[in-house]
Design a protein that fits this description.
Elements lengths: L10 H13 L4 H13 L21 H20 L13 H6 L3 E14 L15 E13 L2 E17 L10 E21 L12 E29 L2 E4 L12 E30 L4 E12 L9 E12 L4 H59 L3 H5 L6 E4 L9 H13 L5 E5 L7 H21 L7 E6 L13 E6 L2
Parallel strand pairs: 11-12
Antiparallel strand pairs: 1-2, 1-9, 2-3, 3-4, 4-5, 5-6, 5-7, 7-8, 8-9, 10-13, 11-13
Keywords: Coiled coil
Length: about 500
C-alpha cells in the first residue's frame, strides 16, 4: 500500500518542538511553519522571506554619502568661524581657550551605536536591528595644551548575527533551522589627541574644537552561538534515510519514522590588541560642560578566526571639565589686579611724601637765600650811599684774587700772591667785594661769589689779619654784568 509522504508527528513531538523554539525566543508561528516544512520534506517559505538591509550601513550606500556631505559642510562652516580674529568682534579674549585647556583634567561619558565588519558568522534573513548594537563607556583626559591631550577610555558594546533560513534542504540531516550569535566586548585604550582647530592661532570660535585621536587598545570579547537543528529519518529494511520530497513507504516491511529537534550552545571568546582612530567634534556649553559627537574605527591586530576586522562606533559625549567657574576665575583675576593697584598706590604715596619733604626743604633753603640776598642788597645800598668823605678814605684797588670759571678754589699762584699781600697790610682795615661772571643762573652765581669771599677771608685770617678789620664783606654775584675773567674776582681795598 502506498502511503502519502506527509506524516504527522505525534502531539507530544509537536509540543516538544514548539517548546524548544520558544526557549530560544523564536515566534510560535515561525515554529509551526518550520516544523511543518521539515515533516513534509517540502520547501519552507517563512512569513517574512524578504532579504533585509542594514538599518544604517556604516561603510557604503546612501547613508555614507549623506554622512560625508554633512561632515564636509560642517568642516567648511567651522573653518569660516575659525578665521583670524581682526580685533573688531565681540568674541571672548584669546586666553579663554588656554584657561579651559591648559594642564586641566576632564572626565566624560559616551553612548551610541556600534558596528562590526567582516564577521565569519553571516546574517541570513536577520532582524533589521541586528546590524547595530548599543555602546556605552567613558574616560578621563588630561589636556596639556589647547592643541594636545592624552587620556584613557573604556567602551562596552556587542555585536549580533542571526540566521533564519527561508529554504531548507531535507535531503541532508540534521537541518540547521535557526542560528543566533551574540558577542559582548570590552575595549580599553590609551590615546593621544590633537586639536585640528588650533591651526587658527587667533580664531574666533574657541568654543568649538575638532580632535583627531589615535593610540593603542586592548579588547576582550566573550559570547555564544545558539543553534536549532531538525532531524527526520525513516528506517525501512534495516536502512535509515532522510525523509524528503518524493519519499514512499512499502507495505512489505516495517517502517520506523524518527523526528527530533536539537539545540546547541557554543561559547566563543578572543583577546586582541587594536589600533583606534577617532574624529571628535566638541562644543563648550559652559566652562565646565562640553558636548560632542564622536566617530571611531578600531583595527584589530592578528584577529585570527572569529574576531571581526573592524569595530566602528558612533557616539554622543558629555564631558565635565575640572576648571574654576567663570565667576571664580574673574574674581581671582580682579583680586590680583586690585592688589597690584593697591601696591602701586602705596608706592606712589610714599614717593609723594618723599617729594613733598624735599620740596619743603628746598622752599626753606630758598627763603634763607632770599633773606641773605636781601641783607646783602641792603649792605650794598649802604655802601653806595656812604658820604663822599668816607669814600675818599678808600684807596684805589690794592689787590684782587682771580678765580677760574665756575670755581671758588684758589690756585697755588693766587694763594701765594694773597699771602704776600696780607703780610704787608696787617693792622689795617680791609674792604672785600666778591663777584661772579654773567654766564649761568643768577642765584647760582650769587652763591659762587659768596663761596669765593669765604675762601679769601679764611686765607687773610690765617695770615694774622683780625676778622674785625675785614669789613665790609660783600658778595655781589653778577650784578656788575661782567662776562669775562674780570667778573671772577674778589677785590680787596685798604682803608686809610
Amino acid at each position: 500500500m502506498a502511503v502519502d509522504h506527509k506524516y504527522l508527528l505525534s502531539l507530544k513531538t509537536i509540543l516538544t518542538t514548539k517548546d524548544a523554539f520558544t526557549n530560544l525566543n523564536a515566534p510560535a508561528s515561525d515554529t509551526a511553519l518550520l516544523l511543518e516544512g521539515v515533516i513534509t520534506g517540502g520547501t519552507l517559505n517563512l512569513m517574512n522571506n524578504r532579504q533585509t538591509k542594514p538599518l544604517i550601513p556604516p561603510l557604503s550606500g546612501r547613508w555614507t554619502k549623506m554622512g560625508l556631505s554633512v561632515l564636509f559642510f560642517s568642516t567648511l562652516s567651522v573653518s569660516a568661524l575659525a578665521q583670524t580674529n581682526d580685533g573688531f568682534g565681540t568674541q571672548p579674549p584669546r586666553n579663554q581657550n588656554s584657561e579651559l585647556r591648559t594642564r586641566t583634567w576632564s572626565i566624560y561619558a559616551e553612548g551610541g551605536l556600534s558596528w562590526a565588519t567582516d564577521l565569519w558568522y553571516q546574517n541570513i534573513n536577520a532582524k533589521k536591528s541586528y546590524n547595530q548594537s548599543p555602546a556605552v563607556g567613558g574616560g578621563v583626559d588630561f589636556t596639556i595644551r589647547p592643541w594636545v591631550r592624552v587620556g584613557a577610555e573604556y567602551l562596552w558594546s556587542r555585536y549580533r548575527r542571526e540566521q533564519r533560513f527561508s529554504k531548507l534542504d531535507p535531503t541532508t540531516m540534521p537541518i540547521k533551522a535557526y542560528g543566533n550569535y551574540l558577542m559582548n566586548y570590552h575595549n580599553a585604550k590609551l590615546g593621544v589627541g590633537f586639536n585640528f582647530m588650533e591651526l587658527w592661532p587667533r580664531r574666533r570660535a574657541q568654543w568649538f574644537n575638532i580632535w583627531i585621536s589615535t593610540g593603542i587598545g586592548y579588547t576582550t570579547a566573550k559570547g555564544n552561538e545558539h543553534g536549532i537543528f531538525f532531524s527526520n529519518t525513516k528506517t525501512q529494511g534495516g536502512q535509515t534515510t532522510p525523509i524528503g520530497e518524493g519519499t514512499s513507504i512499502s507495505n512489505d516491511s516495517e517502517v520506523t519514522i524518527t523526528g527530533n529537534v536539537r539545540t546547541t550552545n557554543r561559547h566563543e571568546n578572543f583577546d586582541n590588541f587594536y589600533i583606534p582612530a577617532s574624529l571628535h567634534f566638541e562644543a563648550d556649553v559652559t566652562r565646565r560642560f562640553t558636548i560632542g559627537l564622536k566617530g571611531e574605527m578600531d583595527w584589530l591586530i592578528k584577529r585570527k578566526d572569529i574576531a571581526p576586522k573592524n569595530l566602528i562606533a558612533g557616539l554622543a559625549t558629555v564631558r565635565y571639565n575640572f576648571v574654576p567657574s567663570r565667576a571664580k576665575r574673574l574674581k581671582t583675576f580682579y583680586d590680583g589686579e586690585i592688589s597690584s593697584l593697591n601696591n602701586r598706590i602705596n608706592e606712589l604715596r610714599q614717593t609723594t611724601a618723599v617729594e613733598r619733604e624735599r620740596a619743603a626743604r628746598e622752599a626753606a633753603e630758598r627763603q634763607r637765600l632770599e633773606r641773605e640776598n636781601a641783607e646783602l642788597q641792603r649792605k650794598l645800598s649802604e655802601c653806595k650811599n656812604k658820604a663822599p668823605e668816607h669814600i675818599v678814605k678808600v684807596e684805589e684797588i690794592s689787590h684782587f684774587v682771580q678765580f677760574a670759571n665756575d670755581s671758588f678754589k684758589m690756585s697755588r699762584e693766587e694763594a701765594y700772591r694773597l699771602k704776600m699781600f696780607a703780610q704787608g697790610v696787617k693792622g689795617q682795615k680791609l674792604a672785600l667785594v666778591a663777584e661772579a661772571s654773567t654766564p649761568g643762573q643768577a642765584d647760582y652765581n650769587q652763591r659762587l661769589s659768596e663761596k669765593r669771599l669765604e675762601q679769601v677771608i679764611k686765607a687773610l685770617v690765617k695770615e694774622g689779619i683780625a676778622k674785625a678789620d675785614i669789613t665790609p664783606q660783600i658778595a655781589i654775584g653778577e650784578r656788575d654784568g661782567k662776562p669775562t675773567a674780570e667778573g671772577r674776582r674778589v677785590t680787596i681795598k685798604v682803608e686809610k
